[in-house]
Amino acid sequence: MGKKSSLPLIYLIGVLLAAIGFCCPMIKGLFGSSANGFDFIRNAKEGSFVAIGAILIFAGAVLGIIACFVPQLKGLKLIFAIVSLAGAVILVIGFMTNGRVYKAIGKHFLKNAMIGFYMVVAGIICAVVGAVTNK
Asked: What are phi and psi for residue 62, nearest 5 degrees?
């Protein structure tokens, strides 16, 4: 009898971390306020890189969670992890290119990052590792 692999669990933990981190404060703003992923979507102009990136991060994480429990979607886990990763890259590009406020945040991004940002990054890394090594 072989030992059961824990890699599907690593993927689930990763997408859960990304989804929960998206809801937590990600960036410390001006005057002590903070913004989570939904604030990025709400405050961004329609179709901006910041909104698109935030939507992709959350959609990839939620669909990844669903894929863990729906047998027909198990083959799409890697795609959902890559969607979240692409959303993170697009979000960072959006911070570096959009408007003065986003550029100011982008220049000092890691200094202003909060727990949600680190949870999203760790979650995406775990999800990609869990999806790639589970093949």
From this structure: -65, -45
**CB neighbour list of residue 44: distance below 8 Å, 6 or more residues apart:** 50, 51, 54, 94, 98
Q: In whole angstroms, how far apart are CA 44 and each of 10, 53, 74?
A: 32, 11, 33
pLDDT digits (tens, 9 = 90+) for 124-135: 999 999 888 875
Asked if 62 contacts 21 with a C-beta cutoff of 8 angstroms, the reply is: no
Q: Each residue of 88-100: pLDDT tens digit?
A: 888 877 777 765 5
What is this structure's pTM? 0.82
